[in-house]
């Protein structure tokens, strides 16, 4: 007769804490007691408690921040790789309250570096509106945005102050585009991004650089940086024809 598998202490603790999160008794953002206090509460060694918390963090239920503590993770937002998503809609899809804070807005003459990054016929010295802002979900930093907009291809943009409506939302509603591209990469937060997103220097982030254009020229270039533990990308694919299946 096969003996039932003995459940380890760290398995029991993992299951109990997971249930506290899934049931909603511990909400996203809830800070757990320090590891030593949890170990004492559950009557186990600190090593056993660390093993349980590490497993839950790996599963996506917890976020462990150096020198700050352990927190219940926010639900991960998803962006479609081949779509231009409205960040407000992304936050709303998670059932969270959205807010946009305008950090800066000014008309600039693009540098050689900026023109090269924009591409699509952009040239050094060309006039552009530069906007920087922070998107939040339930009061927590969600995405840092830096955006350049071509006034020649976005009529009325210079009259928008973007203190209420984010530039991405306004552009999706007002300005048609015919072509878009995404460049996606992982990066480590520098001091400025870390401060904006309430991260530690060097924390993992997800960067999406988006360009849109029309037949007449570029419309906008946007750099969107998300905390790496709160965002993921997804895409759906279909075979081009039946011969591709299998």
From TrEMBL:
Keywords from the named record: DNA-binding, Transcription, Transcription regulation
Keyword S-adenosyl-L-methionine: no
Stretches assigned to the HTH gntR-type domain: 7-75
UniProt-listed CDD domains: WHTH_GntR
InterPro entries, A to Z: Bact_HTH_transcr_reg, Chorismate_lyase_/UTRA_dom_sf, Tscrpt_reg_HTH_GntR, UTRA, WH-like_DNA-bd_sf, WH_DNA-bd_sf
One GO molecular-function entry: DNA-binding transcription factor activity
Entry keyword annotation includes tRNA processing: no
Name of the protein in question: Transcriptional regulator, GntR family
């Amino acid at each position: 007769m096969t003996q039932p598998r003995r459940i380890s202490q760290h398995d029991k603790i993992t299951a109990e804490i997971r249930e506290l999160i899934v049931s909603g008794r511990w909400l996203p953002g809830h800070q757990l007691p320090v590891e030593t206090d949890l170990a004492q509460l559950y009557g186990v060694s600190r090593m056993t408690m660390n093993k349980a918390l590490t497993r839950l963090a790996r599963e996506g239920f917890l976020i462990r921040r150096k020198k700050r503590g352990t927190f219940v993770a926010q639900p991960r937002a998803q962006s479609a790789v081949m779509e231009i998503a409205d960040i407000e809609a992304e936050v709303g899809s998670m059932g969270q309250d959205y807010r946009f804070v305008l950090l800066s807005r000014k008309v600039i003459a693009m540098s050689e570096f900026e023109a090269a990054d924009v591409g699509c016929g952009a040239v050094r010295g060309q006039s552009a509106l530069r906007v920087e802002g922070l998107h939040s979900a339930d009061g927590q930093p969600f995405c840092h945005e830096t955006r350049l907009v071509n006034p020649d291809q976005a009529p009325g943009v210079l009259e928008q102050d973007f203190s209420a409506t984010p530039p991405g939302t306004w552009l999706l509603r007002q300005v048609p585009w015919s072509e878009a591209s995404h460049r996606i990469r992982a990066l480590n937060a520098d001091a400025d991004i870390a401060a904006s997103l309430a991260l530690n220097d060097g924390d993992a982030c997800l960067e999406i650089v988006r360009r849109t254009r029309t037949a007449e020229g570029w419309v906008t270039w946007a750099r969107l940086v998300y905390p790496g533990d709160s965002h993921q990308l997804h895409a759906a694919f279909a075979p081009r024809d039946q011969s591709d299946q299998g």
